[in-house]
Amino acid sequence: MRVIGQFRGLYLLCEFEDDLLVVDQHAAHERVNYERLREAVDGSVPTAPIDPPESVELTPAQFSVVQSAMSDLDALGYEIDSFGETTVRVRSVPAPMGRAAAPESVRDAVDALRRETSPEHGREKILKDLACHPSLKAGDELDDGKAAALVERLGACENPYACPHGRPTVLTVDEAALVRGFGRRGTRMD
Q1: Which of 64, 37, 45, 42 lies closest to 129, judged by CA?
Q2: In a shared domain, residues 69 and 106
Q3: pLDDT at residue 118 above 70?
Q4: 3-state SS, residue 60
Q5: Do 111 and 171 reside in the same domain of the chain?
Q6: What pTM value is reported for the model?
Q7: Is-contact 85 114, C-beta < 8 A?
Q8: What phi, psi does 101 have (nearest 5°)?
Q9: Omega before 96 cis (within 30°)?
């Protein structure tokens, strides 16, 4: 697959055989981040220090989860300390592919642990949310090298066709659709 351009800071346009592929760069980046995080949870998650540490206010329900799930949060890349009755100090955050999650994302991680029926479901929800936070956003411009690297990493994923939340990462526009759409006759089609 060859990247031939970017559209509106949202999509990568790629050429593959006789098809035009449109890659949602956020969904693709999220898929790559998710699979790397999932793999890293069994090892060590890349983290970024927060210096100075940032205080994040939690609800009492969230704070009670923190007390019982500190090791789960640590395994996901959050280094936090209790700081007062419902506040935590965030010392480091997950940083998949070098893009650090916001310190406030610890709230989402705690909520996922709190809402899910088992620790495994909670962990899966957290990984999905963590993959989303540092992923490319609408309007993020990519140079040719970064665009090609993202497409290559997406191609190496176990499931390159959907983000972890189920949205498609790639749409295909075949040459026949272009021929029909432009009313062309006599255009080469294999």
Answers
A1: 37
A2: yes
A3: no
A4: helix
A5: no
A6: 0.68
A7: no
A8: -70, 155
A9: no
22 DSSP β-pair partners = 13, 171
CATH code of residue 157:
3.30.1540.20
Range of 113's domain? 46-132
- 23: which strand partners? 12, 170
The string of pLDDT tens digits covering residues 23-63 is: 999 999 999 989 988 887 666 677 899 999 999 999 999 99
- Split into its structural domains, the chain has a count of 2
Q: How far apart are CA 71 and CA 48, in angstroms?
A: 18
Taking alpha carbons only, the member of 135, 81, 76 closest to residue 109 is: 76
pLDDT value of position 77: 84
Compute how many other C-beta atoms are within 10 angstroms of the C-beta atom of residue 162. 15
Q: Please report, as a single letter, which amino acid is at residue 147.
A: A
Given pLDDT bands bounded at 50, 70 and 90, which one contains residue 75?
confident
Secondary structure letter of residue 101 according to DSSP: P
Q: Which residues are 47's β-sheet partners?
A: 94
Do 105 and 52 have their domain in common?
yes
